[in-house]
Amino acid sequence: MSVHSMSGVVAFSDTDASGRFHFTAAYRWAENTEHAFHRSVLPGIDIGRFPRRATSATYERPLTAGDTYTVDLGLDRIGNSSITYAWTVTGPAGVCVRGEHTVVHVDADGRPAPVPGALRERLAPATGVA
Questions:
Q1: Domains and CATH numbers, the chain
Q2: Cα distance between residue 43 and residue 45, in whole Å
Q3: Which of 45, 43, 42, 11 is CA-nearest to residue 28?
Q4: Which of 71, 69, 68, 64 is nearest to 13 (CA)?
Q5: Alpha helices in 17-68 (DSSP H)
Q6: Residue 110: left if φ>0, alpha if ψ -120 to 50, beta else—which one?
Q7: C-alpha span between 2 and 126 (Å, rounded)
């Protein structure tokens, strides 16, 4: 179940010498989608309180400058202080990237802290738990 989607156009600066999107671009697009989701749930949220713990991606199709893409962000797991998002980047020819990343909510001292209640409530439908 997608919790948030965003679309964009591959910028020339997103490409490498091959003319295809650089592998890091997909991570930026997924992170931007995650941050937009967090801000839609909790306006004014401190995005810096959700550092990455783990990331992975599999690349299936190339995108080039000017191609449109959509990032669909879904929930894979939610723990006490961590959230794992699964995401896809889809272009004109289909799925281009499948990835996931885990974030940990931290307190002002950088220690793991419970995921904010409003965010957990918004993610609850995606967990299948009411």
A1: 2-124 (3.10.129.10)
A2: 6
A3: 11
A4: 64
A5: 23-41
A6: left
A7: 8
